[in-house]
Amino acid sequence: MFDKILIANRGEIACRVIRTARRMGVATVAVFSDADAEAQHVKLADEAVRLGPAPARESYLKAERIIEACRETGAQAVHPGYGFLSENAGFADALAAAGVTFIGPPADAIRAMGSKSEAKALMEKAGVPLVPGYHGREQDPDFLAEEADRIGYPLLIKASAGGGGKGMRLVETAADFKDALAGCKREAAASFGDEHVLVERFVTNPRHIEMQIFADAEGNAVHLFERDCSVQRRHQKVIEEAPAPFMPEALRAEMGKAATDAAQAIGYRGAGTVEFIAETGEDGVPKAFFFMEMNTRLQVEHPVTECVTGQDLVEWQLRVAAGEPLPLAQEEIALDGHAVEARLYAEDADNGFLPATGRLARLALPEGADGVRIDAGVVEGDEVTVHYDPMIAKVIAHGPDREIALSRLARALEQVEVVGVTTNRDFLIRLARNTAFRAARLNTGFIETHRADLIRPGDRPAPDRVLALAALGEVLGRAEAAEAKARASHDPWSPWALSTGWRLNDTSFNDLYFERGGEEVHVRCAYLADGGFGLDLPGGRVRAEAARLGDGRIAVDLDGHKGRVAVSVGMEATTVVDGAETWRIRRIDRLAAAGFADEDTGKLVAPMPGKVTAVHVEAGAAVAKGEALIVLEAMKMEHTVRAPKDGTIAAVRFAVGDPVGEGEALITFEDE
């Protein structure tokens, strides 16, 4: 076994690898960019080495600097995690040349599976079933359009070197093909440096089912059962579970054999995932399956496999890389219950899943809950930046059956509290409790099909209960500030320093103003003689008692209904995390608001920080509402900004390649 390994990654996967290495008595070296100098993986590792500036291409993707760090620290092996250099054959070759072990497959196996087209050709030879399509090298748009007509619509265009949904387009008609092809090639070139694509039939009612495989240097290969990753947004996974619901034993055995045959066909070694698309009947049972791709690394969703098999896949990786045989034979690997993983992202699910950034002013995760596992790489106070993937944590629940696992997951998500950054928490709760999802009627279009049940309008008005909680958080915060000021004064016992709202011959009150559904709402909070509060809300008066707890929550009693709720008062808004719903209630300072003009509606602003990758209009052009105007790339995904109304373009402020900040004016319209 190795004495010391370097983890060439960041965030939760780096922390995850460090935990297993520490348990095995293996020392660890972290690497970091300037943006990650205070990150958790840096603090957890035994040593840490700076790579360079924040952009990944200047830090985490600099193979030569990582190899130099191995020499500096004496690390004998490198664990690449996932993403970054994890599937880079050149990096694996460079490590071998430097005498450092790559904790992953041979470089030739990475090359074989790195091109979707070449991988499909290899799988066809190995007898693994393929989706009908074109996987060749010819890339002329007219030729590909002819192939698309031959295959038939709907179909998928995929980046050959791609993954994670990047460089992928669903095309419904021939009229849309060439525009989709251009966008796919552009995104593929930006994400992978290779614009080569393949075209294949879109499988109806598809489920994304993948097999976790492992192989050793002696030619042994096993599978550790399947995972269902069908619930996706933008072709990226949101929920993963093991085993796949309604999976027939015969199909599981057939799919497992196809996966291990695929691994042995390319001389594989280490952890890998063979991904299949499965056609599913109306009864939810998967039937025919087809090879999609092989990921030559550990997957984000590997914890669900660990939960149902009782195995540590990172330990398996280290042992196989050190030359040991597989820890178990196929017949020794058994399923135990059901596990589900939800990816908690900094993103606005109710606004097209746009990525979000900011500081985690509050982060509470249900560590230690029964049957729940948390894999995270951040803590309260950390920053979610535009430079890297916006995942905050993975919430994994395990139970004796799927129903219990899902109930544990939903409850665990309700215990998650995040303030300072918009997240998909509420969306995940709605998903975990969705009737169709609980019934396992799954396919890769699940989210879009059930959009009305899963997505909430962003401007929905907060109910009176939430306004009451926001008001109580505000007055309790003012009381704390008054008490602190009194303690620091020369007469802390003065009656004029009391924070209870006491008045000699009157009832004191605070007038608070909030924004609800775009309108101003007035809440009067009166201090009652018995120490409680009288809240005058739009729906009437409510009697309340409230006290701050030490964990960022308040204990509250609203007309006899008691509970503990997370309420965080920020500079401009108060965040209320009330069960399955998170509300950000903007406070209105009536005096301050008088000094600001209305927003200029003639400007179209960037919804997030990013880089311009395409501009479809120029000054003087007449555009219709909904027309694509400009394309932004943020966190390696493309986002199309469309015209909010009919009008004429006055000016385009940015060109292709320009960086833009959130809220910057991209395009201005001529005055009507």
Commentary on this structure:
By secondary structure, the protein is α+β, with helices and mostly antiparallel strands. Helix content is 26%, strand content 32%. It is built from 18 helices and 41 strands. The strands form eleven sheets. An eight-stranded antiparallel β-sheet has the order 26-27-28-29-30-31-32-33, covered by helices on one side. The protein is globular.
Structural class by secondary-structure content:
alpha+beta
Query: What proportion strand?
Result: 25-35%
For the secondary structure, the number of strands is 41
The dominant shape is globular
Described by its quaternary structure, the protein is: single chain
Poorly predicted regions? 502-506, 591-600
Layout of SSEs?
Layout: E1 4-7, H1 11-23, E2 27-33, H2 40-44, E3 47-52, H3 63-73, E4 77-79, H4 89-97, E5 101-102, H5 107-114, H6 116-125, E6 133-134, H7 141-151, E7 155-159, E8 168-171, H8 177-192, E9 197-201, E10 206-215, E11 221-228, E12 232-233, E13 236-237, E14 239-242, H9 249-265, E15 270-280, E16 286-295, H10 302-309, H11 313-321, E17 338-345, E18 347-348, E19 354-355, E20 358-359, E21 362-364, E22 372-376, E23 383-384, E24 391-399, H12 402-414, E25 417-419, H13 425-432, H14 435-438, H15 446-449, H16 451-454, H17 464-487, E26 509-516, E27 519-527, E28 533-537, E29 540-548, E30 553-558, E31 561-569, E32 573-578, E33 581-586, H18 590-593, E34 603-605, E35 610-615, E36 622-623, E37 628-634, E38 637-642, E39 647-652, E40 659-660, E41 665-669
Parallel strand pairs: 1-2, 1-4, 2-3, 4-5
Antiparallel strand pairs: 6-9, 7-8, 7-9, 10-11, 10-15, 12-13, 14-17, 15-16, 17-24, 18-19, 20-23, 21-25, 22-24, 26-27, 27-28, 28-29, 29-30, 30-31, 31-32, 32-33, 34-41, 35-37, 35-40, 36-39, 37-38, 39-41
Helix pairs in contact: 4-5, 12-13
